[in-house]
Every structure is written in structure tokens, then in C-alpha cells.
User: Fold Protein-export protein SecB from Bisbaumannia pacifica.
Amino acid sequence: MAEDNNQSTGGNDQAAGQQNQQQLQFALQRIYVKDISFEAPNSPAVFQQPFKPKVSLDLNTSNQQVGDGLYEVVVKVTAQVAHAENGNTSFLVEVEQAGLFRIGGIEGERLEHTLGAFCPNVLFPYARECIDNLVNRGGFPPLMLAPVNFEALYLQKKQRAAEGAAQQSGETTQ
Assistant:
């Protein structure tokens, strides 16, 4: 009899788990380039000297709700490559890689985490490929950006926000 009770309880737990899974929804609707730019301001002179790059990279993410359960997430990558010795800009490339995500059953901190870390992880390889292609078409070797840990960046952003809030509350109490 004890076995019968355990099995039926397990069945109820399984049914509850299936209901939770049915309520959670995450689907990539579309991936697209929102903005793209490539500049080689010192060409063709830049091709007449040895290529000694000094890379400056800027990475940002943003998101916004664009419909009921529909979110746009954007990963913006800006890379400026200058000659290491004379500082002249070899090229500047900027890509805003975006995606539409349908998300349901996720709220609060979990939704924020999904939009701030998980979705950018999905989009970044597309941005990286786009940048490599643009740079190559500009006559330069591919930039080959390293993978980015958006999970760590998200946690750092949350920590900075918490520290900023703590400092503000400390200032108002003094």
C-alpha cells in the first residue's frame, strides 16, 4: 500500500511539473541586424604599411518589451582598430545584432536574467560572424572576437547597481 501511495504522489508531482513546463515559454522569433557600419578612414594608405593592430572593443546590451510576451534584445559591438605605432585608425566597425524573443511564464529577476544574459549569449555569435565578414570585405584579416561570458557581465552589472543603491542610501541617511 505504501508503494501505491508513493507512486500516485509521484504522478501528481509529475503532472504539476508538466503544468509548470507548459506555462513557461521561450522561443526565438527572429534574428536580424538592426544597424551596421564599417569605416576605413585611412585607406588606401593603411594597406601600404605593416598591419600592427591595437583593438579597442565596446560591448553593450539592451532590451525592451515590444508586445505582449515579446521582447527585443540588442547586442551592440563596436570595434576600433588602430595602428599600434602611429595610432591611425585602420577601421571602425559597429554592429547591432537583434533578436525577437517570445517569453512567457518568466517574471521578475528570472526574466531580467533571461533578457540580460541568456538572450545576448544566443545573439553574440551572429554579431561576431557579421563583424568578421565586414572586416574581411574591408580588406583586413577577420577580427575573430573571443566568446563573451554574458552571465558574468550580467552579474557584474547587478553588483554595480547594488553598490550604487547602497551608496545612495548611505548618502541620504547621513
